[in-house]
């Protein structure tokens, strides 16, 4: 799996003073002696985190991981490496695969990162839930998060439509936002290539 160009921090895992069920905490605990482990994170950015996982849950929920774990050369291994997700996003993915839906408690950036993971690893039910939720929450204050994950978010037509409408009709607010000077070249190019912007010149 190719390394992600940018690994966005998504801490904390849970917000709004919620807690995970005891069995989820047990499965996510590094002290639980699971027989399969995933080394997660881009090693060029920071050391990978070794996370225990229930292998058959990965196989059951993700078509991509199903192929990797049943049909590839690693099918007999007790561990694998995932470099295109950060550890917190992978843990959120595990929470859903283990049967607990905590999507409504995630911070916006964490939800978008999880949407990206659901798309990459073909977890359709999770992608559908997150797409509906994120679409209702996107604003000028968080649209840069959506634009940064454009290659995924554009696969959700209504979300991508709203994000581009914010760019086109709230351009002045976008340009004056504190995050604007830090946008990636790809996001900046996407903004200036819009058919219309609500400013006199760029």
Automatic annotation (TrEMBL):
Domain BTB: 34-98
Cross-referenced InterPro entries: BTB/POZ_dom, SKP1/BTB/POZ_sf
SUPFAM superfamilies: POZ domain
Entry protein name: BTB domain-containing protein
Organism: Cuerna arida
Lineage, top ranks: Eukaryota, Metazoa, Ecdysozoa, Arthropoda, Hexapoda
């Amino acid at each position: 799996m190719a390394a992600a160009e940018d690994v966005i921090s998504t801490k904390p895992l849970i917000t709004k003073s919620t807690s995970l069920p005891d069995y989820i905490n047990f499965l996510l605990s590094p002290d639980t002696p699971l027989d399969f482990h995933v080394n997660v994170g881009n090693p060029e950015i920071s050391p990978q985190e070794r996370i225990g996982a229930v292998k058959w849950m990965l196989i059951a929920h993700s078509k991509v991981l199903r192929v990797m774990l049943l049909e590839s050369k690693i099918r007999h291994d007790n561990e694998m490496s995932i470099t295109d997700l950060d550890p917190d996003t992978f843990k959120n993915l595990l929470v859903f695969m283990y049967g607990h839906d905590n999507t409504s408690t995630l911070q916006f950036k964490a939800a978008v990162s999880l949407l990206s993971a659901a798309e990459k690893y073909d977890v359709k039910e999770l992608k559908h839930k997150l797409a509906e939720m994120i679409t209702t929450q996107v604003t000028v204050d968080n649209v840069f998060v959506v634009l940064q994950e454009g290659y995924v978010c554009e696969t959700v037509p209504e979300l991508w439509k709203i994000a581009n409408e914010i760019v086109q009709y709230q351009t002045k607010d976008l340009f004056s936002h504190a995050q604007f000077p830090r946008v990636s070249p790809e996001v900046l190019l996407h903004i200036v290539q819009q058919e219309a912007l609500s400013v006199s010149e760029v």
